[in-house]
Specification:
Blueprint: E1 4-17, E2 20-33, E3 37-41, H1 48-56, E4 64-73, E5 76-77, H2 83-89, E6 95-98, H3 112-123, H4 129-142, H5 148-152, H6 161-173, E7 179-183, H7 191-208, E8 211-216, H8 219-225, E9 228-233, E10 236-242, H9 243-248, H10 253-263, H11 297-301, E11 307-310, E12 313-315
Parallel strand pairs: 3-8, 3-9, 6-7, 7-8
Antiparallel strand pairs: 1-2, 1-4, 4-5, 9-10, 10-12, 11-12
This protein binds adenosine-5'-triphosphate (ATP) and magnesium ion (MG).
Magnesium ion binds next to helix 1.
Length: 326
């Protein structure tokens, strides 16, 4: 595999709440190569958005306890980089966001064109005003918005949800990023529009060589557009593999349970008995052990390392399924 564009290494952090520490990322690892779409999946509350925010440098300012780890991007540790330098070069520049909800992302009082122009002035300071307009029009064309000039003259309520999400993608592309964090970018949209937007993301990643961290609950969508999949469970890595190996040879019992829920037709991460554990008092050993049909004594006592890759898979499990169909 190509040298990673981004690596997250043993990242551990907690939210401070009244009841204690919510141990939301516990030694998490992730690798994204240039131009790669990585699907980040796992049940609600497993820490996907927190990991995305940490990569974007957009964690809440207070109430966070950082226990350790690194986020390396272009050879630099973003966690250790000075705030100002990160803001000028990385955050919102080399790494940008496509938000989940395009409906709340525009100010209703100003035209779309005015808001994009403000953003472009800030994100592309090296361009002149006519260059910024040309770039905006080029990007609206790239996200397949017809009649871009007319769209720029409109107010946010005058365009559809799908069009707004296309605008969000165009805005994320403005500074020519190397990585886009797309946190459930289509959940607020109709199913048919979702498929179009995901197809668009795949095409843009191919054409522009831009990597995407695609956070989703939807394994079916991940299968369609991702190059590789990373599964998190309760703030820890479970399994990561190239997409074909992932779906053909799942090893972690949690992954096989997720895929079973996909195959039962729900297409979503449902139907696994038990509940995601409290992250304030997580289970000892492997955090999945109370729900796992393959748990051994060692799983209750010792946390499995996230080892590999072996046969393309990285895996945190003491007793994985055979490397056949799960
Ligand atoms: N600001 C916060 N303060 C305290 N706890 C938080 C905060 N943000 C998130 N959490 C908790 O951290 C855990 C992980 O949240 P996160 O939003 O990262 O999960 P997620 O995998 O993105 O979930 P979802 O699929 O529902 O979006 C949850 O238990 C959540 O309640
Ligand atoms: Mg989330």
């Amino acid at each position: 595999m190509a040298e990673p564009l981004l690596t997250v290494e043993e990242l551990s952090l907690s939210y401070r709440v009244e009841a204690g520490l919510v141990r939301v990322l516990d030694g998490v690892n992730l690798a994204i190569a240039a131009g790669e779409i990585v699907g980040l999946v796992g049940e609600s509350g497993c820490g996907k958005s927190t990991l995305g925010r940490a990569i974007l440098g957009a964690l809440p300012r207070g109430g966070i306890e950082l226990h350790g780890g690194a986020i390396r991007f272009g050879g630099r540790d973003l966690m250790a980089m000075a705030e100002q330098e990160a803001a000028q070069t990385i955050r919102g520049r080399a790494i940008t966001l496509i938000p989940q909800d395009p409906f709340t992302s525009f100010n209703p009082l100003f035209t779309i064109g005015g808001q994009i122009a403000d953003l472009a002035r800030f994100k592309c300071p090296e361009l002149t005003k006519p260059q910024r307009l040309a770039r905006t029009l080029e990007l609206l064309d790239a996200v397949q918005l017809p009649q871009p000039r007319q769209i720029l003259a409109k107010y946010p309520h005058e365009v559809s949800g799908g069009q707004r999400q296309r605008l969000m993608i165009a805005m994320a592309l403005l500074p020519n990023p190397k990585l886009i964090v797309a946190d459930e970018p289509t959940t607020a949209l109709d199913v048919t529009i979702q498929a179009q937007i995901l197809g668009l993301l795949r095409r843009l990643a191919n054409e522009r060589g831009c990597a995407v961290l695609f956070t989703t609950h939807d394994l079916g969508a991940a299968y369609e557009i991702c190059d590789s999949i990373a599964v998190m469970y309760a703030g820890q890595n479970a399994e990561a593999a190239p997409v074909k190996d992932f779906f053909e040879r799942p090893r972690h019992p949690y992954t096989t349970a997720l895929l079973a829920s996909l195959l039962d037709g729900s297409g979503r991460l449902q139907g696994i008995p038990g509940e995601v554990p409290s992250l304030i008092t997580p289970p000892q050993g492997c955090r999945f052990n109370p729900r796992c049909g393959r748990a051994l004594d060692t799983c209750r006592a010792h946390r499995p390392a996230f080892a590999g890759p072996v046969g393309g898979h990285r895996l945190a499990c003491h007793n994985p399924s055979e490397a056949g169909h799960g």
